[in-house]
Amino acid sequence: MTDELAVLGIECFGHHGVFEFEKREGQIFVIDLVLGIDTTPAAASDDLRDTVDYGSLVASVKAAVEKDPVDLIETLAERISGVCLLDDRVEWTRVTVHKPDAPIDATFSDVALTITRKGRP
Question: Where is the Dihydroneopterin aldolase/epimerase domain (predicted)?
């Protein structure tokens, strides 16, 4: 059985995008994380060492978004999922990258990509 730990709405500033002005000026990206983990050990021990420290995870995700510009949110989402899966207790992760200020010549509220990746068996 897998439980779900979610951290939603993580605001990061990155320089990702296909266009040169996106890389130069940067923009806000909003990240949603859902992790599939077994929380039974942590519930039994009431010890942070027995679960995923979401504070540390958020710091690592922010660092991943804020470094090395890429063209596509697909590449960025894959990078973030790799960060989430570094902890062997994470069975799977669902990562959504929101790009609310994407350069689209239309009125819209959000551009978002969601990927799901499995950890090591």
Answer: 5-117
Catalytic positions are 99
- Break the chain into its structural domains and give their ranges: 3-32+54-111
Question: In 1-121, where does DSSP find H-type helix?
Answer: 20-25, 40-45, 54-66, 73-84
For the segment 72-99, the average pLDDT, to the nearest whole number, is 97
Task: Tell me if 31 sits within 8 A of 97, measured CB to CB.
Answer: yes
HSE (side-chain half, CA atoms, 13 Å) at 66: 10
For domain 3-32+54-111, give the fold: GTP Cyclohydrolase I, domain 2 (3.30.1130)
